[in-house]
Amino acid sequence: MASYEGYILVIFGIAIFFQQFIMYIMYVRIKQLLRELDTIEGKIKINDTELENLIQRVEEFKNINYGDEWQKSS
């Protein structure tokens, strides 16, 4: 009986080691994804002034190219 307990102890020890290794790999990947998310977030930030300028330019473009026709079709 004692020999079976030894084998089970070794198997469980290997399983725990393997689980810890998988958790470390997941931790590293999460860190990579968070860095990538921060990089992307920095590229898409827009402030109120930029948004107002964009809205104004779109309205000017619609008025120049379509006049009042775009409002009639809506």
Q: Which short descriptors sum up this protein?
A:
74 residues, mainly alpha, 3 helices, 91% helix
Description:
With 74 residues, the chain is mainly alpha-helical. The protein has helices at residues 2-44, 48-66, 69-73. It starts with a helix and ends with a helix. The chain contains three helices and no strands.
SS strand fraction: under 5%
Structural class assignment: mainly alpha
Helix content: over 70%
Shape verdict: rod-shaped
Tell me the number of helical segments per DSSP (H or I, 4 or more residues long): 3
What is the CA-CA span between the terminal residues?
Answer: 83 Å
How many structural units, i.e. domains?
1
Order of helices and strands: HHH
Low-confidence stretches: none
How many runs of DSSP E, i.e. beta strands? 0
Kindly state the mean pLDDT as a whole number? 86
Radius of gyration: 30 Å
Question: How is the main sheet built?
Answer: none
Give a brief description.
With 74 residues, this protein is mainly alpha-helical. The protein is built from three helices and no strands.
List the helices and strands and how they pair.
Elements: H1 2-44, H2 48-66, H3 69-73
